[in-house]
From TrEMBL:
UniProt protein name: SRPBCC family protein
Alphabetized Pfam families for the sequence: Polyketide_cyc2
InterPro entries, sorted: Polyketide_cyclase/dehydratase (IPR019587), START-like_dom_sf (IPR023393)
């Protein structure tokens, strides 16, 4: 993996992909509905659009509430930074100019179905992980490695849920 041994400041990334035996429009319908994401995640508990918006659009914001055994419970505001109907949907967590993470779904028609990828980048802005690194700077690479592996596992599970729903 490209992030093995990375430090937080390296802004490590992870990506998972799958092929789904369903039309791109069906997969897009699921991917672009962030309110569905908590049903696919052990960590993400709820998502709610803010500012009277009910769907993705550039600049739209949503609040996510999460829970993790090691980090407790927290809330973040994400900003949609990319929205190309049927193709790409991305959001920055926290400050869009210096996010704690960026998440992106990409879709592409392939072999009569849809190729779906989920990508994420950690940093450069501070996150809950920053507090663990501050407390144990000598373990930073291990902390980042473990968290990136969690993200990778969770993204694979999310894509599997989307695949199951889209193919049903």
């Amino acid at each position: 993996m490209e992030w093995t041994g990375a430090r937080y400041a390296d802004m490590p990334t992870a990506e998972v992909r799958t092929w789904i035996d369903a039309p791109l429009e069906r997969v897009w319908e699921l991917v672009s509905d962030v309110t569905l994401m908590p049903t696919m995640s052990e960590e993400l508990q709820s998502v709610e659009w803010v500012d009277g918006v009910g769907r993705p659009a550039p600049g739209a914001r949503f609040v996510g509430r999460s829970k993790h055994d090691a980090f407790g419970e927290w809330e973040t505001t994400s900003h949609v930074i990319e929205y190309e109907q049927g193709c790409a949907f991305a959001w920055a967590v926290g400050d869009p100019d210096r996010p704690s993470a960026v998440w992106r779904f990409r879709l592409e028609p392939k072999d009569g179905g849809t190729e779906l990828s989920e990508w994420m980048r950690m940093g450069p802005g501070r996150s809950g992980l920053s507090f663990a690194i501050d407390a144990m700077p000598e373990k930073e690479q291990k902390i980042v490695f473990v968290r990136m592996r969690e993200f990778e596992r969770n993204m694979a599970a999310t894509l599997e849920h989307i695949k199951t729903m889209a193919e049903a």
